Amino acid sequence: MQAVARQTSWLDLYHWKGEFVTRQSFAKEKEWGPRINGHRGELHGIIWKHVMERGSIDVRLDTRVVDYFEDGEKAGVELVNGEKVTADMVIAAEGVRSRGRKIVLGFDDKPKSSGYAVYRAWFSGDAIKDNPLIKHLVVNGDTHSGYIGPDLHFLVSSLKNGTEFNWVFTHVDDGNIEESWQFPGKVEDCLKYVEGWAPEVVEIVRCTPKDARLIDHKLVYREPLPTFISPKKRIALIGDAAHPFLPTSIQGASQSIEDGVVLAACLELAGKNKVPLAVSAFEKIRYKRVHDAQAMGPKTRERWHKANWDEIRKTPEAIHLMREPWLLNFDAEEDAYGRYEEVVKSLEESRPRL
User: Fold this and answer.
1) Each residue of 50-64: pLDDT tens digit?
2) CA distance 344 to 238
């Protein structure tokens, strides 16, 4: 994963007009373990390759799940072609619009707009390497910068020694979530949002190639769920299906992977004949941690979008990303193996007795 990751140990933060404010260093976090920041598609590719190398896993692409079901002995999914596939349990990991949420909650809950949307672009560093205003973002290796303004923050980075470049900005959105929630973006629309911003920001957007992947997608909000697991404990929600994160949390992918690791550990320790117990233990281990991590996203967004610049110039670290040791200096697998027996005991003690 390091081969596709951005090789920086800092984030440079600027006022939206272009004034440099502060550099946040992540160097001390090395003792907590490696940091991976890269293109999610490439990270998916690495995981995909690992799955394929196992050789015994049936993977079906372009196959839509339309429903979930379970009984006391098994769980399953119904595919769009009518086929039903059953197993000891089902993991619903298809994001904020997961159909698995209905069987877990007992009703169809509708996504809500968070009031914000995001533009994202990714393209070759060659597109700007000769531009005198912004070439410094790619010609000297990897970089990571952010511009903070009223109800908008703009993040930009390069990776693979400056050969790839990306930018993203979160902005206020008043659209209806029932509309298409992800669609191609237009440079001319993006430029309207950053009008009057730092010349570098405007130039970055203006120089986005026509063939670049530029998307605009709504940030979907979901109320925290009372549970991540189905009534018969044969279906579990993980990742955004259970707990969608705002980009400012910088934890969506990480917490999804932690979910998978903990669930795998619980299933291993419980064994095939105690799947519902494993699923219950998974939820017990994960529930508080993911909700605490989830809460960090709105906090960071508010610190940035409502920034008091008079105060920030006195204490620039006030706009640093929150980097909590309890969140980052943590081994989810080790924690699951270490706590499993204790968690199972508490679950068994809490069962109603006749």
Assistant:
1) 999 998 888 998 999
2) 20
